[in-house]
Amino acid sequence: MENRELAAMFEEMADILEIKGDNPFRIRSFRRVAEALHSLNFNVAAAIVENPEKVRAVPGIGEGTIRKISEVVATGQCEEHQRLRAEIPASALPMLDLQGLGPKRIGLIWSSLGVSTIDELEAAAREHRLRGVPGIGEKTEASILKGIEDYRRTQGRLRLDQALTATAPLLEHLREDQSVLRLDTAGSIRRRRDTIGDIDILVATSEPEKAIQRFLSYPGIRTVLVGGGTKASITLSKGVQADLRVLEEQSFGAALQYFTGSKDHNVAIRERAKRRGLKVSEYGVFRVEDNQKLAGEDEDGIYRLLDLQPIPPELRENRGEIERAELGTLPRLIEESDIRGDLHMHTTASDGRDTAEDMAQAGIAKGYEYIALTDHSKALSMIGGLDEEAVLRRCREIDRLNEIIGRIRILKGMEVDILGEGELDLSNEVLAALDIVIASVHSHFNMAPEKMTERICRALQNPYVNILAHPTGRILLRREPYAFDFKEVFRVAIENKVMLELNSYPDRLDLKDAHLRLAKEMGALISINTDSHSAAMLRFMTYGIYTARRGWLEAEDVVNTYSLPRLLAVLKKQAYR
DNA sequence: GCCGTTTTCGGCCCGACTGTTTTCAGTCG
């Protein structure tokens, strides 16, 4: 049993208890358990049998949790979990994902109107029955409808990390079959888009039926939609659809090219082929006059045959990549191995799970030359943000840690809140003591765009600010970016030698691809950071790199590919790029 | 439910905003 399966159980129990109005601290501790389970790098179900003390030592996991996990490992389920599920219909839980509607009102609406699904909720709102519920008026009813609308718009899509996590075991399952000769993902998942509609998988085999059967025997299937001779479609647990296409090895490259898309890219490629008397299909590249097949087994060969540099999947959006490939001047896209450090992470000093030393050791394990510890400032009092005095104390601790560890340079940093008028949450005197200052917006998201632009620009003009973190504040599939004038903000950042962040946290990926490219073209320097809240999250760098590649970034565009001396010069504003 | 002590029970991250109230509850971050 995987940690995430156990985590899902604790999350669901927390959700139900919340609607029931149970003890909030008990709910919070269930959520903490779920978080802990996600961040641990060993299998808890196995460990609890072999070495329970190891599990018991995890902060947030106590006797009650040990009991529940042991019960699940022994019997396959947890009695309390089953009992709770019987009390609140599972169909009510997705209502918790609606913005503007919380557990209290869900509980109230359920008990007074019997509404237990989003569909019923929508009907009740449209018929103005919600206003009869105590504490709900016209405006709340309208805001609930808006919440439902937003929810429907994003439903059925997965974040890239969720899609990759769902796909990996399925690919593994297919790979174990002898008849599978070649195997890859296609579609938006291969292009590494930030969200994914469905999962496309291609298999080359000489025994199509066997490969299809293997696919349909995957244990993670929820429903089988189609199961034909050359293709099959299933849905997985989160309702996401996975499509398999089976083909012969000699057309695998052509199929990969065809099914990777994007649609616009393929249209342009096929037009180009047509002008050259060629025809491109999912079976290969053919000469029109005699239908002779000229390429198809490998994907690069298709591009070469059209006198193009092979185009990395991340660039295939028909945004100029074909013209550049013709000239042979495609960017040499950044790779994860170019990264020498991570400049945004949190520790136990504010809302991180691990200590400064833990983070440093994790950085060393990744082969980094430097990291920056950037805990939150005091405006975020709810998560223990640091005030001036605490920052200075923290600096002394990091100095000591640098002396002890030695193998990696730990930069003294802070993630400082940009307050409502653009002023920073810490005094310049204290900022001057730091190696690196990250500025970010965590409040007042729905300002007028002009006001937001002014606010951010004012913060960027502070001489100590080095990085503007997660510049648009978007949360994928949940929160829209806040509105401001990108070009103006980028311009002011460049003028003040401030870097723009590509936040690799998988539900942010902010800046996004198009904005990265714009920033690069304007001359901005980017910093790709994980915003880790635990040592395990340093792996999120992978997602940042995917997005960076979609934004056409090369190593030279990214400050944390620079050597330490060069980075320090940028941080002191003696250099930019 | 977890934790840490004051070692076995009491505290557990808080402040702003909104809409609905007529003095505050619910939601969000």
Notes on the structure:
The structure is a single chain. The protein has 24 helices and 17 strands. With 577 residues, it is an alpha/beta fold. The strands form four sheets. It has a seven-stranded parallel beta sheet with strand order 11-12-13-14-15-16-17. The chain has a five-stranded mixed beta sheet with strand order 2-4-7-6-5, sandwiched between helices. The protein has a three-stranded antiparallel beta sheet with strand order 8-9-10. It binds one DNA strand of 29 nucleotides through helix 2, helix 5, helix 7 and helix 9.
Q: Radius of gyration, rounded?
A: 26 Å
Percent of residues in beta strands? Answer: 5-15%
Sequence of strands across the biggest β-sheet: 11-12-13-14-15-16-17
| Distance, first to last CA | 48 Å
Share of residues in helices: 40-55%
Shape: globular
The strand count comes to 17
Structural class: alpha/beta
Low-confidence stretches: none
Average residue pLDDT: 91
Tally of individual helices: 24
- Largest sheet features: 7 strands, parallel
Which features would summarize this protein structure in a list?
alpha/beta, seven-stranded parallel β-sheet, 24 helices, globular, DNA-binding
